[in-house]
Design brief:
alpha/beta, seven-stranded parallel β-sheet, three-stranded antiparallel β-sheet, 27% helix
């Protein structure tokens, strides 16, 4: 079985609010202002692939990412977690929309593939659109099952488990298929060993540009501008503090009560 896992690098969602910055021109978070990490749902997908390989005994796992050169760190971590190969489509453009990303990933998967199973995180931790997996399946003209938290293989088919509002669904599927992965207590990403992290930087990593995939920035296949970010801001909450005065405690309480009446207009 050949498995493709798509990874996205994002700004660490756990950074302190004081370190978060927004570019007013690009209308996006400033990547250089905080640590960059692999999207957690993408790591859940990678862990799912690793567990499936351990279950069936033979599978080849390829990690794929689309983004700036810094995304190589996410792919190196995937190799340290024991992915077999990794590829990066270098795209330095700001905040490509989900359809653009899906088309680029689909083109890369055709160049790397074919694959029996493509795993994508259910959504990204930065914009949270949750569209890339389904759009990628549409581009590849194969089925897609969303919000899966467990995958098993039986009798040449895949058994997909996901939770719904009314209980659990078990879906029997044939490959090829795209599956979006959600988090679960059984797919918490493993921590790679230090030796594996060091060895990952000695492994080859395939790098392509959009031109290598026969895609240009003005090509219809890189998106159709179906949505636009018109405004992005950090919420600001104004707070004021006023001190009541008085020589004694009774005078301060009385002044405080008068102030409340003035503000609320009632006793």
């Amino acid at each position: 079985m050949r498995i493709l896992v798509c990874l996205k690098q994002i700004i660490d969602p756990e950074i302190p609010a004081r370190d978060f910055r927004i570019d007013p021109i690009k209308l996006e978070a400033v990547r250089g202002s905080a640590n960059l990490v692999t999207n957690i749902f993408c790591e859940n997908a990678l862990e799912m692939a690793l567990q499936l390989r351990e279950h069936i005994g033979a599978a080849e796992i390829t990690a794929l990412s689309c983004g700036p050169l810094t995304a190589e760190d996410s792919l190196r971590k995937a190799l340290a977690m024991k992915a077999d190969a990794a590829a990066l489509v270098v795209d330095e453009r700001s905040n490509p929309d989900p359809l653009t990303v899906a088309r680029i990933l689909a083109a890369a998967s055709r160049k790397l593939g074919p694959f029996d199973l493509i795993l994508v995180g259910r959504e990204a931790g930065d914009w949270g659109a949750g569209q890339t997996g389904a759009l990628m399946a549409e581009e590849l003209e194969i089925p897609c099952v969303s919000f899966v938290d467990r995958i098993e293989s039986a009798k040449g088919k895949l058994l997909l488990k996901r939770q719904t509002d009314t209980g659990w669904e078990l879906i029997e599927a044939e490959s090829p298929i795209v599956v979006t992965i959600t988090n679960d207590e059984n797919n918490v990403p493993r921590i790679p060993k230090v030796r594996d992290v060091m060895m990952s930087y000695r492994q080859p990593l395939t790098k392509w540009t959009l031109d290598d995939l026969d895609i240009t920035t003005d090509d219809d296949r890189t998106g159709n501008n179906y949505y636009e970010v018109v405004h992005l801001l950090i919420p600001e909450k104004e707070a004021r503090c006023e001190f009541v005065s008085g020589d004694t405690l009774d005078e301060k309480v009385e002044a405080f009560a008068r102030h409340i009446i003035e503000v609320t207009g009632r006793l």
